[in-house]
Amino acid sequence: MRNAAQIFPLSLQVFRCKKLASFLVMAILLLLAVGDSKAFVKFDFEQKFYVHPQRQVWDFSLIRPDSVYHIFYHSILESTPHAAHADTIWHATSADLRCWSAPLPILFSGSNTWDEAAIWAPDIFRDDAGGRWILAYTGCDAQMNQRTLMAESNDLETWQSFPENPVLEPDPANYVWDPNEWWSDFRDPFVYRQDEQWHILITAKQWLGVNSGILYHGVSDNLLDWTDEGFFFANDGDDPWRVLESPQYFVRGSTHHLMFGEYDTRGISLVSGPSPDVWTMADRVILDYGYAPEVDQFDSGIDVFSRITPFQNPQQENLSYVARFDTLLTNAEGGDPLVYKAHPLEEDWAIWTGLSNLANPTFGDNPAYRGDEPCGLVGHGFYGSQEYYQGPLSGRGSPGTRLGDGVTGTLTSYPFVITGNRMDLLVGGGHYPETCYVALVSSLDSTILFSETGTDQELMTPRQWDLRPYQGQTAYITIVDAENGPFGHINVDEIEETWFDYSGTGTPSPTVPLLNHSVSPNPFNPMTRIRFFLPEPGSLSVRIQDIRGRLVWESGLLSCEAGENSVTWTGLDQKGGEASSGTYIYSIQTHGASAGSGKITLLR
Predict the structure, then answer these.
(1) Residues 84-98, buried b or exposed e (16+ Cβ, 10 A)?
(2) What is residue 131's three-state secondary structure?
(3) What are phi and psi of 252, to 5 degrees?
(4) CATH assignment of 48-340?
(5) What is the pTM of this model?
(6) Is 26 strand, coil or helix?
(7) Distance between CA 66 and CA 155 in Å, rounded?
(8) 516-602: which CATH topology?
(9) Beta strand ranges found along 144-210 (DSSP E)
(10) What CATH architecture applies to the domain 4-26+346-504?
């Protein structure tokens, strides 16, 4: 077996993720990185995008009940020329904003005169008093005149439109809106609760000496009867006719923020101040590019910033649109928020070196974008050491671009405890076993336990590694491209630790079955509890290791009864000192092997 130290060229420059120095940003990174604890590791190279295959993702709403993200959005086929033709609202779910369930349609246009042409721009919120979820959205009649509609649901899956629809349309005497004309603006509802009333902001036009884009403001006690409060904000800039689309109003500290898109522009606009009364387009800043912004605070002090963003598929004439999720940094003392785009490798990968990692993970089937053989990725991301497209708004490349075979580099994961008995992965690229490969490496002595290389084709093919001899050991994944010859690159995706039934293969079954286990709270401070279920009484211990595989704390041997058991970690190391903030690996050890493991994060 080779030693991993033999294949790391010392001349390669190490590129680590550039983290902001403040504790606030560190906390953001940790909280966004850690989801539910997992018994098995998986490296799938997905980024925080939502992609609907072969369709464009347009205006959406994001919620997170019960620790699961739900996205609701309207969509059109990639071949549809204009988003105005959207006739369906869709729903998908995710645990981490990266891997999403298959989308399902929940609402369709065409059942009434006011929505027969299209439905757009869902905004979902909870009506606690009514014990239901509400979806506010835009309906368009045959002349594309727009009204506000609502639907309700008890389970987020089955939706029923309000029989009172449309619940809101503007007074033509006060707004530039005529149901007998073509295209009257009254769309993109944003609903919030304030002072024990419902408030709604809607994209509209009003005659203010000029034909001005404004945000309609209404209030209601019952979501049906709305009182017009006048405009919330008016476009007082150089192009007042541009309507203000997809509004998002939020307050952080003592600062009031309004985020929106301006019609027929690609930038996301932001106005801020101590109150809405002082807002003016003269102070407007372009926060980022994209359309239809959204800001959500699911964890205290952490704002998820979302928007739709286009990219050009070189093999198609039309743009495609996806949703992207990043972090918004705000300041309680005022000042403009900042968009923080975490590096997509930093959660699972400790070190990346060399030019081949400049734009990884690769977004989409980038070889197919430029007309080459498809790579066979799963989801919307993979690792390609010659590719140069990290995705929309990444600042790295464009669809179909590549760095070529001349670049080299290495990618190394954080260590993990081997828990499963098999590892599956997809591998493609050039056939260079010694210089271009993916490997599982022992953390103890840097011995390469398994290694795979390509077969001189872009298409990735399945590979499997039998982990049974190494269960309970700490290891890491490394992907190496030290080759600049023809086809000198590697493609990798879906590296996943699993539990495989070897009973029918003539080989012994594992002697240590996996336990059902969980950890909460996670992240935690000052203590957390690791719970596990034993089918019968037994002895075990719980270990806490840092991401380098070093032992931090161990419970000692415990005698446990059958059924639910738990071990509490108070955040102290073996010497009784306080462990530092960071991500740790816990493992449940029995009979000298791991019966379950996962990630846990301590925030001081």
Answers:
(1) eebbbbbbbbbebbb
(2) coil
(3) -125, 115
(4) 2.115.10.20
(5) 0.78
(6) helix
(7) 12
(8) Immunoglobulin-like (2.60.40)
(9) 146-153, 160-161, 186-194, 197-207
(10) Sandwich (2.60)
